[in-house]
Amino acid sequence: MDETLLRNLTPGVLGILVRRGADFAAAEDAVQDALVEAVRTWPSDPPRDPRGWLVTVAWRRFLDAARSDTARRRREDLVDGEPEPGPAAAVDDTLRLYFLCAHPSLTPASAVALTLRAVGGLTTRQIARAYLVPEATMAQRISRAKRTVADARFDRPGDVATVLRVLYLVFNEGYSGDVDLAAEALRLTRGLAAAVDHPEAAGLLALMLIHHARRAARTAPDGALVPLAEQDRSLWDTRAIAEGVGILQGALARDRPGEFQVQAAIAALHADAPTAGETDWVQIVEWYDELVRLTGSPVVRLNRAVAVGEADGPRAGLAALAELDAALPRYTAVAAYLHERDGREEEAARLYAEAARGAADLAERDHLTRRAARINARLRG
Amino acid sequence: MAKYLLLKHYRGAPAAVNDVPMDRWTPEEISAHVRYMNDFAARLEESGEYVDSQALSPEGMFVRYDGEGRPPVTDGPFPETKDVIAGWMVIDVDSEERAVELAGELSAAPGAGGRPIHEWLELRPFLGAHPTVEE
């Protein structure tokens, strides 16, 4: 059975229940039940109309729950005679659902969990395993999130930017665990970009496609991180890159720049170079200037210093770095790299080792330790 | 979200403010302490921030490989000067500020005289997942 197909149907089904008058929290529970039922019965008894099947089963579950709960009896007044919404309404329903799950009153972690369950159709167990917390903890996180948005109105459009931030968080969580969160974020962003006409939604989709395309090249067989410059470019998924670049060009043509479009443009320039040596660093620096203008982010300035180091030489990169706060995450790693490029190997090895001690993740720490070890071995030569 | 380890020491941490060994508390004070710890964990579960907690025996030993075909060498019990871990709690929270706030709350668990222990807890961030987007 195609679980992705099943999950793609989730937001539309949930939207229909809510439009029929079910409150969001109860409807969401009913849809989860229907999904579980579908996984159980579809392999031996596939429905002719999967979406219709899910709506029917979820609606029945919702009614059962409403009837068994006398305190919530009022819901029953709403149940009869609501017409089935057409396909256009389904798109609006889906979009409203994205907004609700990324509601600004939610913490980032709650918005992520609720989005993965209500829009993504993942089970609580799958989400818990992806984020390495107990299922009970994730269940609480989701039910609190649902209570938080219980009073939020479902009929008002929200801010696309908040939804994009949530999806970007999921994407950046990476590839560990049973659930491929990067692929899941990509699928959800594709759904959003189809439902809303917004250049930043397209920009984020392009960014994800291009990064995802390099996935096979990003790790060595032993699990070690392979930096962009050393990746085997024949492993890149050229079709995904072409799709991302096409989407990006469409977005940029609308002349409403935003940070995801600019990040995607930088990723596209990397993807466009046949070898690392042929990378158009001058253009990349220009995009970083634009990104600094848009975000003012010190982390962006740090990445810009790396690009300047490639475009104008390591001394220029170190000069750009000198203007930044040395307490920034990855500052020392960047300093190490620029020193290495400048031929100051002893200093580079020392900085790599220092950066490894401050690394925020294991893959990065191991990578930096290897860089230090490689230079030290060369120096012992 | 980021995971943090709250580490409680039998030995090796700076002395607590209300530093009376547990065997000199009243039974009621011990019950109050245990209840506080359980309530704290239950609240974290409810807020979706709880991951794990375990207590460790103070007894233990060091073990190391001693070469092919030989049994591992053991050493211990720990010398008096050795840092000894009493237990831990793992939390999954939105920020370092929240982690510090929770560690502070845990350190306020009641001890002798029903007053907060003010014990020093070690707070250590987990190494996280590597971000997908990095250039």
Could you walk me through the main structural features you see in this protein, from its secondary elements to its overall organization?
- The complex is a heterodimer of chains A (381) and B (135).
- Chain A is mainly α.
- Chain A has a domain at 329-381.
- Chain A is 69% helix and 0% strand.
- Chain A contains 19 helices and no strands.
- In chain A, helix 10 (199-213) packs antiparallel against helix 12 and helix 18 runs antiparallel to helix 19 (362-380).
- Chain B is an alpha+beta fold and 135 residues long.
- Chain B has a single domain (2-125), classed as Alpha-Beta Plaits (2-Layer Sandwich), CATH 3.30.70.1060.
- Chain B has helices spanning 27-46, 96-107; strands at 2-11, 50-55, 62-64, 73-75, 84-93, 122-125.
- In chain B, the strands form two sheets. Chain B has a four-stranded antiparallel sheet with strand order 2-5-1-6. In chain B, strands 3-4 form a two-stranded antiparallel ribbon.
- Chain B starts with a strand and ends in a 10-residue tail after the last strand.
- The model of chain B has no long low-confidence stretch (mean pLDDT 92).
